[in-house]
Amino acid sequence: MLFMVVERFRPGKAPEVYGRFRDRGRMAPDTVRYLASWVDLAFERCFQVMEAEDEAPVHEWIANWHDLIDFEVIPVRTSADAAAMMAARS
């Protein structure tokens, strides 16, 4: 499964987020695969696409960051998969 993860850095915590990442890495279980990410220009939010068999290991990863970041996890599919599903319905 794919997940769009919206991270909202707590006010003033972006330097700590990047410091922890530099020192300890992503700290995600081996079953969670990072695909891509984008950070807004104000260093307030990060948008990540992650892949895992289900949502449970994603929440294990989140637990390592909950003191610095608030998370929203949205299960998603690719646009190509969505188009194929819709084509099969018509």
Strand portion: 25-35%
Through-space gap between termini: 25 Å
Q: Categorize the overall geometry.
A: elongated
- What string, H for helix and E for strand, traces the elements in order? EHEEHEH
Tally of strands:
4
Number of helices: 3
How would a crystallographer describe the biggest sheet? 4 strands, antiparallel
Radius of gyration: 15 Å
What low-confidence regions span 5 or more consecutive residues with pLDDT below 50?
Answer: none
Helical percentage: 25-40%
Task: Give the overall pLDDT as a whole number.
Answer: 97
Report the structural category. Answer: alpha+beta
The largest beta-sheet arranges its strands as: 2-3-1-4
